[in-house]
Design brief:
Layout (H helix, E strand, L loop, with lengths): L13 E5 L4 H11 L4 E6 L2 H14 L3 E6 L5 H14 L5 E4 L17 H23 L3 E7 L22 H22 L5 E7 L6 H4 L5 H8 L4 H4 L1 H8 L9 E3 L7 E3 L4 H17 L6
Parallel strand pairs: 1-2, 1-4, 2-3, 4-5, 5-6, 6-7
Antiparallel strand pairs: 7-8
The chain binds NADP nicotinamide-adenine-dinucleotide phosphate (NAP).
Length: 291
């Protein structure tokens, strides 16, 4: 393990956890709460969200709030972005872990394939809608929780909604991690003058709600059953949010869960730029203007 780094000032700083009511998001929220941060937890279940906020208060949070919202829909993303803006004028960090089990190809009310909607589009849209608030803190950090998806699952930018290709669970789920990497690479390039750093921390099988859900394929549930704890898997994300220095952090991925080794993303620059434009267009067609 690498030595513990110096930490930034976390006490009283503002952090948002999209999908923070259970699993790794909750574990990270409690770790930041324990350092005196103000935390906002986003998820759908009022019960889980309020319980996580209460646990954050007990852990020592300067404040802990819950915002209920469904990030798989465009309306939900807009509602949550407004709620986050109303929460605090400046954000020091956001962590994305929102995900839920699903079976077969599902299409959202906005016409998006489900994993694309929740695990790619919501993240990219929220980052773009909140980047000003992150920059306003002078040191905004964006962390995506991901899996280290092999190139085999490279998404097809001409068929993001699986209209021409045959849909497959792993193709869809793991492809969204690669879309997230492309977003991080492109956003880091576009926002290089802003005090905002983006990274993805990959984790191995972890025992969490989504992984143990009966709607998940058996192989996923099996991995979840023998997976590590959310607290251990969230460690790199916590460090990315709290360490003092962001030097060489933006535009990286941490592929190995047990080491803190940010590696610069070197995906195809043309693909990264194209995905950014496709995302802008998909949002605009549905009435959402992304900066
Ligand atoms: N666990 C693993 O083995 C593993 C491995 C690799 C990568 N990952 C990544 O880790 C993330 C999942 O985290 P986790 O495993 O800790 O899962 P988890 O415990 O199931 O947490 C998922 C969180 O997302 C929220 N959520 C689900 N659907 C939502 C929606 N439509 N809108 C808003 N919030 C929603 C859930 O709360 P509600 O249900 O109340 O909304 C919950 O707070 C995903 O990005 C996944 O790809 C996990």
């Amino acid at each position: 393990m690498t030595a513990s780094p110096a930490e930034r000032k976390v006490r009283g700083s503002n952090f948002v956890f999209f999908g923070g009511s259970t699993g790794m998001g909750r574990a990270a929220a409690l770790a930041l709460a324990g350092r005196g941060a103000s935390v906002l937890i986003v998820g759908r279940s009022e019960k889980d969200g309020q319980a996580a906020a209460e646990a954050a208060r007990v852990a020592g949070a300067a404040s802990a709030d819950f915002l209920a919202g469904d990030l798989s829909t465009m309306a939900g993303i807009q509602y949550v972005a407004e709620g986050v803006r109303a929460w605090r004028p400046a954000l020091h960090g956001v962590l994305h872990t929102a995900m839920t089990a699903f079976q077969g190809k599902q299409v959202t009310a906005d016409g998006f394939e489900f994993a694309f909607a929740l695990q790619y589009f919501a993240r990219a849209a929220l980052n773009r809608l909140l980047v000003e608030r992150l920059a306003a803190s002078g040191d905004g950090r964006i962390v995506h929780l991901a899996g280290d998806a092999p190139g085999l699952f490279k998404p097809d930018l001409d068929d993001l909604q699986f209209e021409r290709r045959k849909w497959g669970f792993y193709k869809s789920l793991l492809g969204t991690h690669i879309l997230g990497f492309l977003h991080i690479q492109e956003a880091a390039r576009r926002w290089r003058e802003l005090p905002v750093a983006l990274t993805a921390t990959c984790v191995g099988p972890t025992k969490t709600k989504a992984m143990l859900d009966p709607r998940m394929p058996l192989s996923m549930r099996f991995m979840g059953l023998f997976g590590t704890t959310p607290e251990v898997s969230a460690a790199n994300a916590v460090r990315a949010l709290t360490q003092a220095s962001v030097q060489r952090l933006s535009g990286t991925v941490l592929r190995r869960p047990k080491r803190f080794e940010p590696q610069a993303l070197r995906l195809d620059c043309g693909d990264a730029a194209r995905l950014w434009d496709i995302t802008t267009e998909l949002a605009a067609q549905r009435g959402l203007r992304l900066p």
